[in-house]
């Protein structure tokens, strides 16, 4: 079992930055690939970024590549999402999730593949 708790959301002006954190419980955190997803009102939850267990492979949705950076610190059981150059369309609830199985570059983007989810943190970007 893994419990995930996100933090770091808030209100920011367009062009600003936020750093989200996701703290995980459990001693097996380093064995999971981790992902960030987001869900805007009235929309489906979409993939944002993911990182493998060691942190040396990362994956992004094209629209966020170059603006968002995912990283992890296995010693702290924490995964991060650094978000720069934020836009109003980035407004959403952001969720972190843990993926316990072997993955492919396709499956790691699929929300149904993830085993554990956090409760989400709200990010609001004003214009």
List the helices and strands and how they pair.
Blueprint: E1 4-7, E2 10-13, E3 18-24, E4 33-39, E5 46-51, E6 58-60, E7 68-73, E8 78-83, E9 92-99, E10 116-117, E11 121-126
Parallel strand pairs: 2-11
Antiparallel strand pairs: 1-3, 3-8, 4-5, 4-9, 5-6, 7-8, 9-10, 9-11
Give the gist of this structure.
By secondary structure, the chain is an all-beta fold. It has no helices and eleven strands.
Provide structural commentary:
- This protein is mostly beta strands and 127 residues long.
- 0% of the residues lie in helices and 46% in strands.
- The chain has no helices and 11 strands.
- The strands form 2 sheets. Strands 2, 4, 5, 6, 9, 10 and 11 form a 7-stranded mixed beta sheet that branches. A 4-stranded antiparallel beta sheet has the order 1-3-8-7, with no helix packed on it.
- It is globular, with a radius of gyration of 13 Å.
- The mean pLDDT is 95.
What are the salient characteristics of this protein?
mainly beta; 11 strands; 0% helix
Report the strand count. Answer: 11
**Whole-number mean pLDDT:** 95
Largest sheet: 7 strands, mixed
Radius of gyration: 13 Å
Q: Helical percent range? A: under 10%
Element-level helix/strand string: EEEEEEEEEEE
Tally of helical runs = 0
- Give the distance, in angstroms, between the N- and C-terminal Cα atoms: 40 Å
- Low-confidence stretches are none
- Overall geometry comes to globular
Percent strand equals over 45%
Structural class: mainly beta
């Amino acid at each position: 079992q893994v419990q995930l708790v996100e933090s770091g959301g808030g209100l920011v002006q367009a062009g600003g930055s936020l750093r989200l954190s996701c703290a995980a419980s459990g001693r097996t955190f380093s064995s999971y690939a981790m992902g960030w997803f987001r869900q805007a009102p009235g929309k489906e939850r979409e993939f944002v970024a993911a990182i493998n267990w060691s942190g040396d492979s990362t994956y992004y949705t094209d629209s966020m590549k170059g603006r968002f950076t995912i990283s992890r610190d296995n010693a702290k059981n924490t995964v991060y999402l650094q978000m720069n150059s934020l836009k109003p369309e980035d407004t959403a609830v952001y969720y972190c999730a843990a993926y316990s199985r072997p993955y492919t570059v396709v499956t790691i983007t699929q929300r149904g593949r993830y085993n554990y989810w956090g409760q989400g943190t709200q990010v609001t970007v004003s214009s």
